[in-house]
Amino acid sequence: MSGKNLGIIILAAGEGTRMKSALPKVLHALAGKPMLGHVIDTAKALTPKKIVVITGHGRGLVEGYIKANHGGTQTAVQDPQNGTGHAVMMAKDTYGGFGGDILILLGDCPLVRAETLSKILSAKGDNPLALVGMETGDPGKYGRLVMAEDGLEKIVEFAEATEAEKNITLCNSGVMIAGAKDLFGVLDKLSNDNTKGEYYLTDVIALLREDGHKIPVIRENQKEFQGVNTKSELANVEKALQKRLRLAALEAGVTLIDPMSVHFSHDTKLGADVTVWPHVVFGEGVNVEEGATIHSFSHLEHCIVRKGASVGPYARLRPGADIGEGAKIGNFVEVKKSKIGKGAKASHLSYIGDANVGAGANIGAGVI
Ligand code: UD1
Ligand code: MG
User: Fold this and answer.
1) If both were cysteines, with which of 17, 18, 321, 336 could 303 make a disulfide (CB 3.0 to 4.6 Å apart)?
2) Residue of the nearest CA to atom 36 in ligand 1?
3) What is the pTM of this model?
4) Atom nearest to 174 CA in ligand 1
5) Ligand 1 center to residue 202 CA distance, Å?
């Protein structure tokens, strides 16, 4: 399902206390893009009727990011932040009268793929709600799924779990799909009578069960649904994302001599037969055309390296560097906002800024 029968709500109002950071959690970058951006892009790929992001903590920054990068994505404010159930309630007016299904995504769960979500959408069937569960080796602080014979019985949050419940390894990914009317109807019945004094979204399961509904659980791989609550989890998710980006490059015909040592940006473009030597960092906005070589210890951002050019080792390409076809930028050369013509060379120790270097030119060592 997609299009006019699907709405998406992304929860992004929480403070993210465990990150111990001044930056709102959902704006922490992964491969150079805020984690919320990854979730919004995945949501967009499902072409829903609308996407509503719940904002609260650090609202100015989060809304500023959305406005600048995701036009068409709506926001609703949650202030104060009284829990995930309370957060979803904030989208009720925006979805007033909507009769389709609503997919709920967490802004701190950035690895989820659109293809996986499409499967989930169809698995809900006629039930009021379906939930994505994940089998975990180490369940940590995830909500625990208590199963009945015919589906999910309830979700117990870590803070409320008994010792026996803490041993359950089947956990809540945080992703669910629910009929809009069923969802907003049951949210009104949530209580905040718990350890944290919050309205837990996860309590809707027990409430729907009391009304006699069956709640199917779709079991998915935990790797894709890993939540980010701490800097250590952020580092783990970055690692997973880098692995994905490297694999995609290799599959597209790029030669990575030592894949693990190359750092990608979410938007890095490398043509077929590009060779990347170990220890190269791609910042945002890099386009390297076919057959070019990037040697070790080079750092590139917002630049283009044209066909067959050679960069590094130890080169720095800053915004606006345009390295022409077959050109050579050698060791300890920094280029900013400059066009280096076809076949031109700057082989050693130079700074080239705001310049236009003609085709075939040779810049000698030490030139500024
Ligand atoms: C939540 C789930 C837990 C699940 C886990 C998966 C609840 C109560 N718990 O726990 O069962 O296993 O996600 O990763 O739902 N947020 C708001 N407003 C709030 C609180 C949170 O918008 O008042 C947002 C946060 O910004 C975040 C998301 O909701 O993006 C999840 O909140 P978080 O505090 O990280 O919940 P977890 O403890 O991870
Ligand atoms: Mg979380």
Assistant:
1) 321
2) 84
3) 0.96
4) 6
5) 10
Whether 348 sits among the annotated catalytic residues: the reply is yes
Q: Which atom of ligand 1 is nearest to the CA of 173?
A: 6
Rounded average pLDDT over 327-354: 98
52 lines ligand 1 (CB under 6 A): no
Query: Residues whose CB is under 5 A from ligand 2 (ion)?
Result: 108, 227, 229
169 contacts: CB under 8 Å, gap ≥ 6 = 135, 136, 137, 139
Q: What is the structure's pLDDT at 234? A: 98
| Under 8 Å between Cβ of 98 and 180 | yes
Would you say residue 104 has pLDDT above 60? yes
Please choose from 106, 200, 233 the residue to mutate so as to test ligand 1's pocket, defined by most ligand atoms within 8 A of CB.
Answer: 106
The residue count for the chain: 368
Nearest CA, atom 37, ligand 1: 142
Report the DSSP beta bridge partners of residue 54.
11, 76
CA 152, distance to chain mean position in Å, is 28
pLDDT tier at 123, thresholds 50, 70, 90:
confident
